[in-house]
Amino acid sequence: MRETREGAMRDTHPPPSPTSDTRRTRQRSAVLDFLSRHSDPVSARELHARMAASGNAVGLTTAYRILHDLERDELLDSVRGEGGQRLYLRRRSAGHRHYLICRHCGRSQPVNTDVVERWAARTGRSAGFTNLDRIIELSGICTDCRPTEGEGSMPQGIPLPHRSPHLSSLKDAVRRLLDLDNDTAVIIRQLASTEPGRPPVKTTVTALPMSGKARHWTLHRSIEQVTNEDLSTLLTT
Asked: How far apart are CA 39 and CA 122, in angstroms?
């Protein structure tokens, strides 16, 4: 701020340039497009890493700001991950949605919580409360991630890769290689293997469409050992 000859105070800080505004709009559109093409919820850090890997980098601070703005504008829903971090996903219908989240593969499924919403509103009114804020979090293990016959728990000492950046990168590669639509879930699991002559773990890949038959593939190695080249060979031959 500085004083003019007339004694008035004038702001010397220049207004945001059109270039800055255009860049922010482009980054916001890129984030929204990314989330529209992926059905699994992501944290700000995961979004930052996955967009950078795809060649469309957005700074981490910018990612946090854009996600906050999109949630405020009711274009995103958010849920809490196992570690308490906030995860975001594209809102695909009007009104806030609640989700059932698989703790293994991260698959999300919207659920009808009207009964709970009515109960919360009724309880608040009876207690004289207004502007209620409620958190409904449902998580478990989905059907595709439950061990089937011959697939026991993971051997001791072999950790399960929950929502690692590498796992997210593999899911993106599967979507790209198979040209999957937004409604098809990609499930990658690390399971115990008891097959003679095979490693003690295996990685299974499943493409699960909303309608139609699921497709399955298996690699006899851990998820962390699977590369994009492995997936390309597995899925395209």
From this structure: 33
- pTM strictly above 0.70: no
Contact of 40 with 102, CB cutoff 8 Å: no
Cβ-proximal residues to 106 (8 Å cutoff; 6+ apart), any chain? 40, 41, 162, 163
Tokens of 130: 């207004």
DSSP code of residue 79: E
Do residues 103 and 162 touch, judged by C-beta distance below 8 A?
yes
- CA angle in degrees (0–180, nearest 5) for 102-31-97: 45
Residues contacting residue 101 through CB under 8 Å, at least 6 positions apart: 41, 79, 81, 87, 107, 108, 137, 138, 139, 140
**CATH 2.30.140.10 assigned to 21-102+108-140:** no
**164 half-sphere exposure, CB direction, 13 A CA radius:** 13
Query: Quick one: average pLDDT of 7-19?
Result: 51
Please give the pLDDT value at position 152.
Answer: 47
Q: If pLDDT is split at 50, 70 and 90, which confidence band does 135 have?
A: low
Rg, the chain, Cα only:
23
How confident is the model at residue 218, as a pLDDT?
Answer: 92
Mean pLDDT over each residue of the chain, to the nearest integer = 75
Domain boundaries, the chain: 21-102+108-140, 144-236
